[in-house]
Amino acid sequence: NDVELLMAVIIIVHGALFFSHIIAAITSLLANRDVSNKQFGAEVDRVRRYLAARAAPPDTQARMKSYLDFIMTRQLGMHESTFMAILPPGLQRELRAPFSGLLQSVPYFKPQFCSTALLETCLDALEFRTYVPEAVVVAQAERRRELILVRSGRIDISVASGKTSLHTLVAGDYLGDFQLLFGTPSELHATASVFTETLVLPF
Prior knowledge:
Elements: H1 2-53, H2 58-75, H3 80-85, H4 89-96, H5 100-103, H6 116-125, E1 127-131, E2 136-138, E3 146-152, E4 155-158, E5 167-169, E6 174-175, H7 177-182, E7 189-192, E8 196-202
Antiparallel strand pairs: 1-8, 2-7, 3-6, 3-8, 4-5, 4-7
């Protein structure tokens, strides 16, 4: 009847409008991503020309390209530290809040030992740091008062540079908890085996 026909027409029109809205949103997303890719590509090209002008070894140039590709994939071409720096303190704290669980995995930051105020202060002090493959995170006998929290990637632990890995740190692990408090030399050598994102709490 006429009522059923009218309802069918209304449903078809609403469906068409919804579908067109989805298509428009996807098109806009792809267009914006294309702009971001072009801007980042221009920055990569400037870096490539700089390395060529400095006669950087081919291996160095290849590692730099690999690093920039990683940054584009993981962070859309913007370093998190740069992005955080332009935000007001309140928004920075909101974005850092999810990392409280990672920080509290360290024994002396657990709720029974650490006040909320101290935890928030430490969260505000966290620095974002990315290590490229084979980069030394901490050298044996080095004095570095930093707590390093692994967000992604892998860090190999050995007793000396070039030695066989004794243990591998992955997301959720940490190192430097003792050195942060007492400033003692590191007894182990830590090297990133892949691109590794970390949060660093300096003394």
